[in-house]
Amino acid sequence: MTVRETPMYIDGQPVQSQSQEWRDVVNPATQEVVARVPFCTAEEVEQAVASAKEAFKTWRKVPLGKRMRIMLKLQALIRDNTDELAALISEEHGKTLPDAAGEVGRGLEVVEHACSITSLQLGELAENAANEVDVYSLNQPLGVGAGITAFNFPIMLPCFMFPLAIATGNTFVLKPSEQDPTSTMRLVELAHEAGVPAGVLNVVHGGPDVANQIADHADIKALSFIGSSHVGSLLYDRAAAAGKRMQAMMGAKNHCVVMPDANRSQAINNLLGSAFGAAGQRCMANSVVVLVGEAREWLEDIAEGARNMKVGPGTQTDADLGPLVSPQAKERVERLIATGEQEGAKLLVDGRGCEVEGYPNGNFVGLFLFSAVTTEMTIYREEIFGPVLCVVGVETLDEAIAFVNANPNGNGTSIFTNSGWVARRFESDIDVGQVGINVPIPVPVAYFSFTGSRGSKLGDLGPNGKQAISFWTQTKTVTARWFEPKNVSSGINSTISLG
Questions:
Q1: CA–CA separation, 367 and 389 (whole Å)
Q2: Which residues form the Aldehyde dehydrogenase domain (predicted)?
Q3: pLDDT for position 395
Q4: pLDDT at res. 231
Q5: Burial grade of 285 (CB within 10 A; 0-12, 13-18, 19 or more)
Q6: What distance in Å separates the CA atoms of residue 373 and residue 139, rounded to the nearest whole number?
């Protein structure tokens, strides 16, 4: 098999890096090296930023209608190439092909939203705000934007960033995850095929040094980050010190509250899919289930459902979840499982020793389900990012709300109930930025903003929706008066009044 050499993308062209540091990209189901990715040099990052800075001079003046038509073409190309993109995701990430296709679909939603840029970027006007004075606002692009994405959604996360950024007139430098970059690079190729001009969308690769250079760079005006809390917090501080705008979507510990009046089979099937889909490698996975009252009696049904889920390679049609992305991820999950047992949690489903026929070298981990979990335990406090579900029991809805609100993270939470009153009470009193009601993964559609909160987010504005338009633009307010040619001044006005 030919190993792909992952290029950079600078000034509208794929460019081979001259870096001496390259990393293997590995199929997590087989450990086969499928690609190599460079850790770009500082000079190459400078080239990408310079290309974006130069392109901004003309791109910012391209009419909204033309930018819209590029987005329309891009969404058509993504739709036509969904199967190819899904296969690349599955090969390098490990998620199942249906899950990968679903990811492409969620990314496509953002591009479709960007197709409405002709109405999204409108300003406001007040005619005759004062005597023959009009006041109006313009939503103008910032300049060069940048994005740094995590491995778990190599298509969706870039789509959370560059389509709206460039649709609003900015240019862009993207650093995708070095663990699964090929699908992202194919997306960038499609963007250029759709008509994105040279220099408007650039790609560099690397690790902490490249990320820090992006955060520090004076010519980059805004940075979007999706990844771990540790890295996001460090980059947020660096970006702030460099005077740039930043949004950081970070770690999570999401909870699914199950009320005893919920539809039993629907609730169990949904919470299992949320917890274990993509082998738990989702920042929006519901990794903690809070069973309320008599719903605590459903524990064995949940465990039985977990035991019946199937682990396999992403290409296996009946697999529910694939391998973890790397051997290091597998080792970390198994270490945390051992910690859970040592700290007193009860292991009802033990996925250790998972073997998948024909794939002896894969990063496969079976499903784990713990009960009797407390907030002091490591498996509750840490984001495991693996197929691990913690179960907690409480007596009342009030206790469930208090339990969720006590967690420092606020990415997402869900409740399963058939009571409108309970659902409304939950959505009102829960202190979490994204809430699902009988929906296990409450990622909103792209024309609403991604609104994680508290410890899961830094920055006031999130990706997608109206907040993304605000993030990628700056408001300029104009106060204008046009004098009649024969108008004669009535004298000097030394007050603050517009007159």
A1: 8
A2: 16-478
A3: 98
A4: 97
A5: buried
A6: 49
Q: What is the pLDDT of residues 436-451, one digit of tens each?
A: 999 999 999 999 999 9
pLDDT in tens, 198-213: 999 999 999 999 999 9
Residue where the block lists tokens 């420092």: 408
Which pLDDT belongs to residue 499? Answer: 67
Strands 435-437 and 22-26: unpaired
Q: Which two tokens stand for residue 469?
A: 């338009």
pTM listed for this prediction: 0.95
Residue with tokens 């789509």: 159
Length of the chain: 499
Write down all domains in the chain, each with its CATH number in brackets.
4-250+464-478 (3.40.605.10), 254-437 (3.40.309.10)
Helix (H, G, I), strand (E, B) or coil at 389: strand
**106, 111, 115, 119 alpha-carbon torsion, rounded to 10°:** 80
For the chain, residues with pLDDT lower than 70 are 1, 499
Give me the helices (H) in 147-283, please.
156-159, 162-167, 182-193, 208-216, 229-241, 264-276
Please name the residue that has the structure tokens 């499609």: 190
